[in-house]
UniProtKB/TrEMBL annotation:
E.C. code: 1.2.4.1
PANTHER family the record matches: PYRUVATE DEHYDROGENASE E1 COMPONENT SUBUNIT ALPHA, PYRUVATE DEHYDROGENASE E1 COMPONENT, ALPHA SUBUNIT BACTERIAL AND ORGANELLAR
SUPFAM superfamilies reported for this sequence: Thiamin diphosphate-binding fold (THDP-binding)
Biological source species: Komagataeibacter diospyri
InterPro entries per UniProt: DH_E1 (IPR001017), PDH_E1_Alpha_Subunit (IPR050642), Pyrv_DH_E1_asu_subgrp-y (IPR017597), THDP-binding (IPR029061)
Catalytic function, reaction form: N(6)-[(R)-lipoyl]-L-lysyl-[protein] + pyruvate + H(+) = N(6)-[(R)-S(8)-acetyldihydrolipoyl]-L-lysyl-[protein] + CO2
Segments forming domain Dehydrogenase E1 component: 28-325
Name the record gives this protein: Pyruvate dehydrogenase E1 component subunit alpha
GO MF, any single term: pyruvate dehydrogenase (acetyl-transferring) activity
Top class in the EC scheme: oxidoreductase
Length: 336
């Protein structure tokens, strides 16, 4: 997995070496997402989570690396594979898991499920089930930032399966026209549902898709949290400086199927095993920390902390009451 870029953006070539403290934080956040998603998968198998459930296992370095370069007020919006973004943004694991089980304690009071939860406090705007629809909303958030005269950035995530949607290109045009502070993050996990990107896209260098509108592009190893963070630092600085949008393609991989109902028979087991063995983002950070002299006991303490948080979230998600029927009539109209 390599890095490429348009002139003027390094795409992580000049990746800063993260401090030991930052690496530990990245390790904790990635393990939290991984264990949370594994537990969600278990609850789904037990019949405690209904509807669609898209897991983020394998892609953790993408959102963690980018989130480390954001500040309070920056906006985040993504597709239906959204639990990782929520946790990285600082949303309460209890509230996220309870929404998955459709309980009153969930972020959408049990009405949204996996794909539709939000947090105005954390500036997280969903979770959207329509492929590519969040991209247009993402530039709306960026327009609001510019209109208000802030230097806040809108980070708009979407997958390679949405990369050739017409609304994505319309959004590129508007973002470039108005020089909107929008970081488009194209998470290329190689498969749009069950179709390889190699069979679905005539454009092979997706990071260059913004070139007709003059949008600079970056291609980054999405399995390396240090590379992602370095690229994000440069892209976010570009947006904050009023220079307009950036398109960042992150080369990543999902270990599970498209959703919990997908057996992923369209790829070989050996392919998944090779990525897990040689490119796993958590193992990479773990090795780096050990090479720097961090004790195994320190990492075990972080693992134990994650385990406690996830078990607590799962317990809360099963004991929180189901929403009252009156909730059917709330959150429909804006009430003063």
């Amino acid at each position: 997995m390599s890095n490429e870029t348009d002139p003027g953006l390094s795409g992580g070539h000049n990746s800063r070496t993260m401090t030991e403290s930052d690496l530990k934080e990245a390790y904790y956040q990635m393990v939290l997402i991984r264990r949370f998603e594994e537990r969600a998968g278990q609850l789904y198998g037990m019949g405690l989570i209904g509807g669609f459930c898209h897991l983020y296992i394998g892609q953790e370095a993408v959102v963690v690396g980018i989130q480390m370069e954001l500040k309070q007020g920056d906006k985040i919006i993504t597709s239906y594979r959204d639990h990782g973004q929520m946790l990285a943004a600082g949303m309460d694991p209890r509230g996220v898991m309870a929404e998955l089980t459709g309980r009153e304690g969930g972020y959408s009071h049990g009405k949204g499920g996996s794909m539709h939860m939000f947090s105005s406090e954390k500036h997280f705007y969903g979770g959207h089930g329509i492929v590519g629809a969040q991209v247009s909303l993402g530039i709306g958030l960026a327009f609001a930032n510019k209109y208000r005269g802030t230097d806040e950035v809108s980070v708009t995530y979407y997958g390679e399966g949405a990369s050739n949607q017409g609304q994505v290109y319309e959004s590129f045009n508007l973002a470039a026209l108005h020089r909107l502070p929008c970081l488009f993050v194209l998470e290329n996990n190689r498969y749009g549902m069950g179709t390889s990107v190699e069979r679905a896209s005539a454009s092979k260098a997706l990071w260059r898709n913004g070139e007709p509108w003059g949008i600079p592009g970056m291609y980054v190893d999405g399995m390396d949290v240090e590379a992602v963070r370095a690229a994000a630092a440069e892209a976010v600085a570009h947006c904050r400086a009023g220079k307009g949008p950036v398109l960042m393609e992150v080369d990543t991989y999902r270990y599970r199927g498209h959703s919990m109902s997908d057996p992923a028979k369209y790829r070989q087991r050996s392919e998944v095993e090779e990525i897990r063995k040689n490119h796993d983002p958590i193992d990479r950070v773990r090795r780096e920390l050990l090479e720097r002299g961090v004790a195994e006991s320190d990492l075990k303490a972080l693992d134990d902390k994650v385990r406690t948080v996830v078990l607590d979230a799962a317990e809360f998600a099963q004991t929180s009451p189901e929403p009252d029927p009156s909730e059917l009539w709330t959150d429909i109209l804006v009430e003063s």
